[in-house]
TrEMBL record:
It is a peripheral membrane protein. Belongs to the ABC transporter superfamily. This is Ectoine/hydroxyectoine ABC transporter ATP-binding protein EhuA. Its main location: membrane. SUPFAM superfamilies: P-loop containing nucleoside triphosphate hydrolases.
Length: 262
């Protein structure tokens, strides 16, 4: 990608009453000579649900991993709830990073810990919550995701759908302001997908958590999203309401992509 290409257009923002929780400014990420993100700009306002769509390899996971500080940008700045996450001193990174929770495609539960401990571990070790408080909160969250009776099970004894619901409870246990969801149903058997999406719909509609979601589940994306971003070759090429983007996209590339997944 050449340096002469236009910067990604800024997504229009309502600067009135809204508060930006995520802000990427001119973020570039390269792996070797592969420029995965090219001066990417975007913002997500508090409480909004934004869905990223786009072909495999277009950099969607990389965006979420940057926000989780699992990888670092080569250029640009990342701000979370008004505080800089990158570049920033390590102590600040640790603090800002607590505002963000993520659910991965492959669950990533701690296999040696029972379900309850999977959910209490980070609140106790990272937030310094008392064990009793963390357990009470974990039981509430496991109830929310329909797994109140699985507290004492090990992850390997659960279905993929159940493991993913534990992973959702685990992320929420940190009381993040932002929940990142990376194709959370794509590793599941088809009959288990609906249960996980129902839990997420419920969370989207009943909490004020900000969501940044990568999914190919279009009916789910329609239900929960305030805005959908079509992503290709490291750029946002189109953004809009789910009705507009899925129903009447402006870009041929978006139409082409949608025809491959619908
Ligand atoms: N750790 C890594 N090392 C080298 N290349 C990577 C790494 N992570 C991602 N990539 C490359 O970055 C590009 C974008 O990947 P990714 O963000 O996973 O895309 P998506 O989630 O949209 O499928 C791909 O070309 C991928 O091969
Ligand atoms: Mg991905």
């Amino acid at each position: 990608m050449s340096a002469e290409t236009e910067p990604t257009p800024q997504i229009p923002r309502d600067t009135g009453t809204t508060r930006e929780v995520i802000r990427l400014d001119q973020v570039t990420k390269r792996f070797g000579d592969n420029t995965v993100l090219d001066r990417l700009n975007f913002t997500v306002d508090a409480g909004k649900h934004v869905t990223l769509i786009g072909p495999s390899g277009s950099g969607k996971t990389t965006i979420l991993r940057l926000l989780m500080t699992l990888v670092q940008p080569d250029e640009g700045t990342i701000t979370v709830d008004g505080e800089q996450l990158y570049p920033a001193p390590e102590k600040q990174v640790r603090e800002v990073r607590k505002k963000i929770g993520m659910v991965f495609q492959q669950f990533n539960l701690f296999p040696n810990m029972k379900v309850l401990r999977n959910v209490t571990e980070a609140p106790v070790t990272v937030l310094g919550m008392s064990k009793d408080e963390a357990e009470a909160r974990a039981r509430e969250l496991l109830e929310l995701v329909g797994l109140a009776d699985k507290c004492d099970a090990y992850p390997t004894h659960l279905s993929g759908g159940q493991q993913q619901r534990v992973a959702i409870a685990r992320a929420l246990a940190m009381r993040p302001q932002v929940l990142l969801l990376d194709e959370v149903t794509s590793a599941l058997d088809p009959e288990l997908v609906a249960g996980v999406l129902d839990v997420l719909r419920d969370i989207a509609h009943s909490t004020d958590i900000t969501m940044l979601c990568v999914t190919h589940e279009m009916s789910f994306a329609r239900d929960i999203s305030d805005q959908v971003l079509m992503f290709d070759s490291g750029r946002v090429i189109e953004s809009g309401s789910p009705e507009k983007l899925f129903g009447d996209p402006d870009h041929e590339r978006t139409r082409e992509f949608l025809s491959t997944i619908l």
